[in-house]
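User: Fold this; tokens only.

Assistant: Input:
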Amino acid sequence: MKKAWVLGVFAVAAAAMLLSGCCGIDLSQFMPGTGGATVSGLTGKNTGVHTGDGGTTTDRVQTVSGTVENPAGAGATTFGGRVVVSLNGQPQYVTPVRSANGTWTYSSDMVIRRGTNTIRVSVEDESGSTVATSNPFTVTGNLPMRDIEVVLTWNTDRNDVDMHVYSPSGQHAWYQNLDGISGCNLDLDDTDGYGPETFVCETAPETGQWTVKVRYYNDKDVTSPVTATIRTTLHEGSAQSYTHAFTQDQANSDDPSNDWTATTFNMP
């Protein structure tokens, strides 16, 4: 296996050198672990404390940031692809922003888990092929165990999808009441695409059946179907994932008639 891997690396490098030499294309920016995609670090949402690679934090909600190269070229003013941030193997699209000097940066909020967390950032071109991948960035969460974590993401930019969580007694956490379930928290209302929105209970305040629903609030002129994903993790075990496709006509603000009941689960 080692020999095959080494030969593969040499083959990729040789191909890159050939393309660079014959066609004048600089492929170095797209090689894994180069400036094509970098993680600058994490910043705690509550404390503002920066954590570097290999560090430890007590902030559960973090903002990850860094730089990426534009597959459309250094001089392009629109990004020719998409940026993917993966936390512990779970991917999430983010929207990069071009600074005044032409550098493309990204930032995304995420909820880390107790113990070791691994973050990678990659760049996809317009065909969906990965053209750059960062080195792995690790951070240790010095955090208490969570009884419940529910994460909502979706695969389109600009539009607004909302998570609604109901406790067994009928308490309701949603964008108008992020702390609507005692002892728990829905971190934010993402109104401009992709998510994530994350609901966390460190200690479940109620036993019985919990319900998670998703509502397509506003399409914001996105005409393609929107695939929403809910990932539920109980007692920091294995995540359970559920997906559902909404069509543009199902975006109906606070009307619950098109709600998707993503999952129900019981807390003992």
